[in-house]
Every structure is written in C-alpha cells, then in structure tokens.
UniProtKB/TrEMBL annotation:
Chain ranges of the HD domain: 40-144
Pfam families: HD
Species for this entry: Leuconostoc fallax
Designated name of the protein: HD domain-containing protein
SUPFAM superfamilies the record matches: HD-domain/PDEase-like
InterPro entries hit by this protein: HD/PDEase_dom (IPR003607), HD_domain (IPR006674), HDIG_dom (IPR006675)
Superkingdom of source: Bacteria
C-alpha cells in the first residue's frame, strides 16, 4: 500500500468495516507483529482495503471482500513461536480466524470461504469465489510488501490474477 492511512478518508470503505474496526477483538490485533514492518491490525486493514479496491474495480462483491479481508487473520498468537498438533500455521490460523470472526459478526458462506481459503498455495483447497482469490493474492502480495520491496511482485500478482480467472470463469478487468 502506498499510503497506510489512505483508507481512513474513503468513506464508502469505512462505512462497510467501521463496526468491525470499533471492536476490541479487532483492535487488539495491533499487539501482534505480523511481518517485518507491520503489526497484524495494519496488515489486516491493508489487505482488506487493497482487496476492496480491486473488488470494486472488477465488479466483485466489495462488501464481503472488505469485511472478510479485515477478519482473515483474526487470531491471537505469535505464529513464529506457537505450534499446533492439528497442522501447520498455514492450515490452522484461517480456521481460528473464522471461528473468532463468527463471535463478532455474521459471516456469510462467501465470507467464510474468503477467510478459510486465504492461504491457498500453502493449503490445498482452492478458493470458491473470485473474492476469495482477490484476498488470497493480496495477502501474498502484502506478505512481500511488508517484508521486501514489492516491485517484482506486481508482475507475479497480475499473472496470478489471470490464473484465478481460469478457476472462477470470472472476467477480470485488470491490465
Ligand atoms: Fe493469514
Ligand atoms: Fe494475512
């Protein structure tokens, strides 16, 4: 994201996620480092807002994208030090996030798919909706953006979006 606070002046976006942002369960994500240069709240807003902009641009469901994007990493442990018997962090944390998200708001089947499939690539089940593809790809991009300079990744992102259209039969207008 070019400007971390860009979303704050986008009233349409704030109207969609404002109730979630006021929740303590979301705000406390600020206490967890995510990648090298960001905490989990900054990361979640960044993924949500960038995904929302793309969803709007391509005519997808920007409300589900923004809300589920914001909640996609709603978990409260340090992934670098916590291990699970049930599986890898990549497999476990989307399920924990969905469970936590359901405690604070209604989650539609599409929003559930967005949250649970956001690690596609590291996990096997492919996204069912174009909105899930968008969040998954933006999350990949964010991981690099928050860690390294992203220039090379932009080309990769565009290529991945083209791959996504084959799975979803959804025509994206990204050039
Ligand atoms: Fe995640
Ligand atoms: Fe993430």
């Amino acid at each position: 994201m070019q400007n971390l606070n860009e979303w704050q002046v986008d009233q349409d976006y704030v109207a969609i996620v404002g109730d979630l942002l006021q929740r303590e369960e979301v705000q406390k994500l600020e206490n967890y480092p995510q990648h090298h240069f960001s905490n989990r709240l900054e990361h979640s807003i960044s993924v949500s807002y960038q995904s929302y902009l793309i969803a709007k641009k391509v005519g997808a469901d920007e409300v589900a994208t923004a809300r589920a994007g914001l909640l996609h990493d709603l978990f409260y442990y340090d992934w670098r030090t916590t291990k699970f018997d049930e599986g890898t962090h990549a497999y476990v944390h989307p399920r924990i996030a969905l469970k936590n998200a359901r405690k604070i708001t209604h989650i539609s089947p599409k929003e559930a798919d967005i949250i649970v499939k956001h690690m596609f690539g590291a996990t096997i089940a492919p996204p069912k909706y174009v909105e899930s593809w968008i969040v998954s790809l933006v999350d990949d991009y964010a991981a690099v953006n928050e860690y390294l300079l992203p220039q090379m990744y932009v080309s990769y992102f565009k290529w991945q979006m083209k791959v996504a259209t084959r799975f979803t039969n959804f025509r994206l207008k990204i050039q």
